[in-house]
């Protein structure tokens, strides 16, 4: 399949989306200090990052607000405290999870909000519910994407139908999400082709959100990019659930657009990321994550194994293959 | 460029070469216990690994034998103590470094040796010296490969000339070696095509040895494989210099030939690899390695930074760009 761009040139349609607070929040219950979030905001803006995702728009009717830091809920006041009127070139994103948000109550008119982009996370069987949120947010004036999670478990015919439905919606972008870190680059190429075919027909863009279970999150992200995907998710030091994500510092070293600058991120990392690791917050590749990735399973058993510091890899592998 | 094979089938020309003792020896001065080497030998044989590399054939005139474990020198007696008459399907390999071995003295007739394959490591400017060793070893009855190191620093015209020279030699295989972990998959595709063109003309195979500086060693290995490379280097837990290598457990999870079995490796890892990590032996991806990989530098400055536990990433990056 045809490649877009080359190793020395750059494509202006490429956008980098920092998801450190949102996906990283899944490993520390969204308990970031204000200093961390403010410094990340400044570092991202200086590094040329195009969007910064602040967290989830989760409903407080569903989640106990004492059990999580405020970025689980991303209230307008929280974001404003960090970004003020956001006088940077960077846009602000949040994620709304199908079935876990009260969007009609919690999402206000774009004109009154610091948020630019609402990313709707959905499994393939809840696309109609996702499109309800997309329509609502689009009508309020937001950019929107549909992020189809756990795509390694979906069938081709389902994906085709889902893409056609999203194509006919007002969503601006469609995301390939490899929640289980199970996909190989060859599969990413096939999905990219499939997503792009629909996206181009309907004038939308395609994004990718990769997980690092098999140490392929960076490889899969640049493979998707090479074949035409334009929105690229990354997190500082790959901070994110389980094995984590494509790291911003990997991606910025690859991208050739001179607007991107790795230096503000290196400065941020040596202070704030070292602090957060000292607090014992853990993520990143290990053998249990590799094994759930290889076998295309949800990482939950590997998350438990990591917490318990299990090194009985063979038993873990046998349990994994026994479970279903 | 055309792909060979598919994700569900397997190519019988694929061979997995375990380089744990040889490349891993670079991080512990080749000081492995006999138990480690014996259990690795058994695990590899049971896992279907095709070749196990035991270490270097280094000259004791050049290297102090008290400063290293015995696998730096791979004497016949050392190997025999582990493998006896090697009544497995797995072949035995060693590496001979141009300028660091006394091959005429130290390499005996194949008929009297436990070794099957001698891999000659060379920089591109010492190919003629490498081919002298290849001819000598070939005439003694060994399989041979030429492993051109640091290929990310070589020019296309040099590579073409080197390949033609190797093509006309009795070497059985030619290796792509990304010593600096600097190459992206697109570059691996181009090199694969280039190497294969010559290799196929002369009836030789192509191999790949990748480093994990940018977390691309597994990605680059399967990209090379997908495009026709057949000899794949891997090490258990990626143990190897600096950021390490493609991990055997990653690769065996990808390969579809039913002769490969990850289980013996998982058992080996949970005992012997955990022990070696407890001893404080260190390798694997970190930010300094990422930065030397991105900038296509020898990892030596990152190795020092790792030893010193430096986290002043920005200074490290500035030093890296200042140095030459």
Features of the shown structure:
14% strand; globular; 324 residues; homodimer; 8-stranded parallel β-barrel; alpha/beta; 8 strands
Structure, explained:
2 copies of one chain form a homodimer. By secondary structure, chain A is of the alpha/beta class. The first copy, chain A, has an 8-stranded parallel beta barrel, surrounded by 4 helices. In chain A, strand 3, helix 4 and strand 4 form a beta-alpha-beta unit. In chain A, helix 2 packs antiparallel against helix 10, helix 11 runs antiparallel to helix 12 and helix 11 packs parallel to helix 13. The longest helix of chain A has 18 residues.
Quick take:
The structure is a homodimer of 324-residue chains. With 324 residues, chain A is of the alpha/beta class. Helix content of chain A is 43%, strand content 14%.
What is the subunit arrangement here?
A: homodimer
**Which spans of chain A of ≥5 residues are poorly predicted at pLDDT below 50?**
none
Shape call of chain A: globular
Rounded average pLDDT of chain A: 97
Q: How would you write the strand order of the largest sheet of chain A?
A: 1-2-3-4-5-6-7-8
Structural class of chain A: alpha/beta
How much strand of chain A?
5-15%
What is the H/E string of chain A? EHHEHEHEHEHEHEHEHHHHH
Largest sheet features of chain A: 8 strands, parallel, barrel
Approximate helicity band of chain A: 40-55%
